[in-house]
Each structure stands twice: as structure tokens, then as C-alpha cells.
Amino acid sequence: MSAIRPVTRILFCTRRHLHNLLSTNISTVMSEEHLASGDPLPPLKDGTIRLYSMRYCPYAQRSRLALLAKGIQYETVNCNLKYKPKWLFEKNPKGLVPVLEHNGKVVFESLIVNDYLDQAYLGKRRLNNQDIYLKAVDDMVMNVFNGRVVHPFFRMFAAAKKDKANETKMIKGLIFIDTELKKRGTQFYGGSQPGMLDYNMWPFLERLKNKEIITGETIFSDKVPLLDKYINDMMEDGPVKETYTLPEVQLKWTTGYVSGNLQYDGLEEAKPKL
Ligand SMILES: N[C@@H](CCC(=O)N[C@@H](CS)C(=O)NCC(=O)O)C(=O)O
Q1: Which pLDDT belongs to residue 159?
Q2: Which of 83, 86, 96 to mutate to test the pocket of ligand 1 (most atoms within 8 A of CB)?
């Protein structure tokens, strides 16, 4: 058990976050406020890359991370997913974010969006493994992560009380990826810097670590110490810092999500103007 009380750790994160805010930002937010049903679709200029997103969506965060890591200039349109704008269904029949739009081309599903970005911008930093077999291995790890970590993660968050069965399942999933990192013997899954697998898993690890900070649990340090170190290393990465959500903001969002009282806007302090 850590000697640091949860509240102290939150203050520590707040200072780090303020430091993070000084990093460069290549994204433009067309609509910081989440647009809802009845709001018009903001016009899209030719050549502009747009991401339809939601501030607290882990899947959209995957694509924000890939865009930032590749250094692709883009704009964001945030969508209210309780009262969805009608035009969201014209972009994605499932009405889900993220959706990428560029010169009349529309791509949805976070993993497809990220693979598309990596292929479409070959001249920028490559995030996928260039070896076709190693890319398949990364995809398989991602597939196991989705089943063993992401699915129990959502069930646990939706449950009103402690959900031991899903927690046990999720810990097994974390042990699997901890072992995978040990096998690779590298700092990140992508090698000496984060790659696609790192960015696609990260939003869920960030949320689980935030939950640990808030509750004072020690799942990572007790059960998957290598992954714990990995999380600290990931926190130093530029795109990770850029998309990071503070534990207390995450808690406010999750509380609203569980109670069905979703609050999309106004959970965070405004970024200081530099
Ligand atoms: N498999 C999709 C999942 C996307 C997803 O579920 N997004 C959520 C927000 S985190 C959403 O749009 N929810 C709206 C809804 O369920 O109606 C992906 O990877 O892009």
C-alpha cells in the first residue's frame, strides 16, 4: 500500500498537468462545446482534416493520439452523444465517434481510422510495425486487450458496486500485456518510442491508472510492476500529455456516466492562454 494519500497524488498530478499544458498543440478545436441535436454542422474547408470526437471517449482518444504522434494538423468537432446531432449518422451510420473526415472521405472505427492515418501519411512518423508479421502480432495483442481489458473495464465502470468477476478478468488481461512487454524487452511495445499498439491501448490504461490514483488501490504496482513503470514512461510522451485527463476530472465524468447524468462540457478548467 502506498504511503501517499489519494488526494496528495491528485495535487501532484495537477502540477504535472499544468506543466503539460505548455506543450505544443497542433489541433484546432472547431467546437470545444459538444454539439447536440439541432446544432448545425460546422462547414468543413477543403483540405482540412476533421475528427468528430467526444472529450472523454477513449476510442476517440486513440485517434487523437495517432494524429498528434504523426504530427498531422487537424480540427476537432466534439459531439454530444446523448442528444446526437443528426449529421453524425450521415458520417457514421452507427452514430459513434471517432469519425475522420478529409476531402469527402469518411473513416470510422478507431482502429480502422488509425491504420488509415498511418497508411495515408506514409511520409510522417510510422506508428505500425513495418514487418507484416510483427504488425499481425500487435493486432493480436490488441485483440486480446480489447476482450480481456476493455470489455471488463466498461462493465466495471457501469456497475454500481464493486464487480469482482470483471476485475479478476481484467487483471488477467493486464498480466497478459505485462508479460508481452517483458517478452519484447523494450521500453514501449513499439520499441524505444510508443507505436500504434501503445497508443491504441493507452486510453484504457490511463483511465485504470486514474481510478487507482483516486481509490488508492495498488493493482498496477502489486500485480504488474513492469506495466506500472511503462505507464510512468508513457506519461512523459508528448501526445499522451496533450490528451491527458486529470484523475478528478475523470472521476466527475465517470460519476455522471454511471448515474446517466452526462455532463459533456464544463468539467475542466480552461487552458491558460499562452
Ligand atoms: N468500436 C468503436 C467504439 C466507439 C464508441 O463506442 N464510441 C462511443 C463513445 S466512447 C460512442 O460513440 N458512443 C455513442 C453511443 O454508444 O451511442 C471504435 O473503436 O471506434
Answers
A1: 74
A2: 96
